[in-house]
Design a protein that fits this description.
abc type-2 transporter like fold, five-stranded mixed sheet, alpha/beta
């Protein structure tokens, strides 16, 4: 018992000497409960909806208000908002950008036909790139239309809803999940690649030789990053091709533009990894930090599985510092929807800023470590 007690006391001493690991052990369950508890929400609110009303009559107005006067939809009147442009072209452009999830088209003479007892069509176009959201939007549509025809008795057989699913007519889940997996894998692999670079030097002891070299800290960081850019580009191209030819995910947009934006995204991941490597004391710690800082936020806060619009406001704000949020919008828009580069200038700019800020932070941290060593 004395020998056993000695081992137990020694292990407790090791645990108490490592407060950082102990904090992670206790804080990680709380953090995951917080993130999962608030982000796992399949209900949608304020679905961005475009309304094209060619009729302008009383019944058409009532139908538009039926969608607008509930928390499920946020309706934008495209004819009023863009008076000098073709409303269908605007609707298609906004669907490709991801600014709209649905477009409602009310034809001319809609109100007149219903008043005279004649049948009239209502067109609804749903963005099918996110199969889960598309199914939910379709269900909400049926509920709103049912309430509308119930309030205006006698017209339930006069309205015919024609629904079209854009970009993914068969609502295949692969078109939704595979681009998301590509986004997660690219940032995770990129961060792991460079997270081991400086920490490897620390463990081998060769970091001292780098510290006393005549090279500037920025030159060292950039020099360590550039070789991995080529590796990351090859991994990105391979992943996209695998998604295309194995899972059948279409690449309808410009492949070269998608590869360029993918490279910018991976450079941001590489910069994150190099920053981690300047902080982590060992390769094992660096890999753990890289996985934790890329995988969990990219899965939970990027819109990969759970719509960002359905999250609480604080998590929506936090999601703006997750690079995968921007790349996911790019890859789904360019690959599945066939949108052009001009639709994602803001997202591309955000990724460039991420890469620049993270690379600068890594250089500053490495420079400070270098001064301490001297």
């Amino acid at each position: 018992m004395k020998r056993l007690r000695a081992v137990i006391v020694k292990e407790f001493a090791h645990i108490l000497r490592d407060p950082a690991s102990l904090s992670i052990i206790f804080l990680m369950p709380l953090l995951m409960m917080f993130v999962f508890g608030y982000s796992i929400n399949y209900d949608l609110n304020s679905i961005e909806t475009g309304l094209i009303d060619y009729d302008g009559g009383e019944a058409a107005g009532e139908l538009g208000r039926s969608f607008a006067n509930n928390h499920y939809f946020k309706v934008r009147n495209l004819r009023k908002e863009f008076p000098n442009e073709s409303a269908p072209e605007v609707g298609e452009r906004l669907l490709k950008q991801g600014a709209l999830k649905m477009v409602i088209i009310i034809p001319r003479d809609f109100s007149k036909n219903l008043k005279l007892g004649r049948k009239s069509d209502v067109g609804i176009i749903i963005d099918g790139s996110d199969s889960n959201v598309a199914n939910l939007v379709h269900q909400y549509n049926e509920m709103v239309i049912f309430n509308f025809v119930t309030e205006l008795k006698g017209i339930d057989e006069l309205i015919k809803i024609k629904t079209k699913i854009y970009f993914n007519p068969e609502v295949k889940s692969a078109f939704f999940f595979i681009p998301g997996l590509v986004a997660i894998l690219l940032v995770m692999i990129s961060a792991i690649l460079t997270s081991l670079s400086v920490s490897r030097e620390k463990e081998s002891g060769s970091i001292d030789l780098i510290f006393i070299s005549p090279l500037k800290s920025s030159e060292i960081i950039i020099g360590k990053t550039i070789p991995y850019v080529f590796v990351a580009f090859a991994v990105g191209a391979m992943t996209l091709l695998f998604a295309r030819f194995w899972f059948g995910v279409p690449i309808r947009g410009n492949l070269f533009a998608l590869l360029v934006l993918s490279l910018i995204y991976m450079v941001a991941g590489l910069a994150m990894g190099i920053l981690i490597s300047t902080v982590a004391p060992s390769q094992q710690a660096a890999m753990f930090m890289a996985l934790l800082s890329t995988m969990l936020p990219s899965i939970m806060l990027s819109g990969f599985i759970f719509p960002i619009d359905a999250m609480p406001k604080p998590l929506q704000v936090i999601s703006h510092i997750v690079p995968a949020r921007y790349y996911l919008k790019i890859i789904r828009g360019m690959a599945v929807k066939g949108a052009g580069l001009e639709h994602f200038i803001k997202e591309a700019g955000a990724l460039v800023i991420f890469a620049a800020v993270l690379m600068t932070a890594a250089t500053i941290k490495f420079s400070r470590n270098r001064k301490r060593a001297k």
